[in-house]
Design a protein that fits this description.
The chain is mostly helical. The chain has one domain. Helices cover 82% and strands 0% of the residues. It is built from seven helices and no strands. The longest helix has 34 residues. 39% of the residues are buried.
Length: 193
């Protein structure tokens, strides 16, 4: 049961990495230092004061940078691979009672996959916002993403089962939205031919 809960924690934190890369790491650091999260042995460094300081500074810079016009779109180009790596790391650091092979397979496939999928969806949302509002709507998108990352990170630590269910709902709606967008684009291309 404890292993399953740690997987749910990892899934929730990985999803949070899809919204903002450093927020979940900051929340993990605080939770570990306060005794609310036990990290896997190889990842105990996340729960140290130097890591806390580094994650706090990185979080502030990341959140602020998404409010700068056009920088936000530039950040999205590197955010998908970075979020995938961060999602992999947070999943691996949350799960400890598992063989290394299974742990890393789970971390890469589920953790990295969830983070990359959500980051991909947020990137598409920002592109749509830029195209329809000329970038004026992007601060609203950035605020929702930062808030989503904070809420999901805290939820993953406090109520892991609810966080995992929220991730399923988010991915379901993101997949529907992406599929609809691709279907519409494909249909328009077919009409023009």
């Amino acid at each position: 049961m404890e292993t399953l809960l740690s997987i749910f924690v990892g899934v929730g934190l990985s999803a949070a990495c899809g919204f903002r890369i450093f927020v979940p790491l900051l929340v993990m650091s605080v939770a570990s230092l306060t005794g609310n999260l036990t990290l896997a042995p190889d990842f105990e460094w996340i729960g140290t004061y130097p890591a806390l300081a580094a994650f706090a500074i990185a979080t502030l810079f990341e959140i602020a940078a998404y409010y700068v016009p056009w920088i936000d779109n530039l950040l999205d180009t590197i955010a998908i691979p970075a979020a995938t790596v961060a999602g992999t790391i947070v999943m691996a650091s949350a799960v400890s009672e598992m063989s290394p092979f299974l742990k890393w397979a789970l971390a890469v496939i589920v953790g990295g996959g969830v983070a990359g999928t959500i980051q991909g969806f947020t990137s598409i949302t920002r592109i749509a916002s830029t195209a329809t509002t000329g970038g004026v709507g992007n601060p609203v998108v950035s605020t929702v993403e930062a808030g989503g990352s904070i809420v999901m990170s805290i939820l993953a630590i406090a109520v892991p089962v609810l966080a995992a269910l929220a991730v399923l709902v988010i991915i379901f709606f993101a997949a529907r939205k992406i599929y609809g967008w691709l279907f519409k684009r494909n249909r328009l291309q077919t009409q023009h031919e």
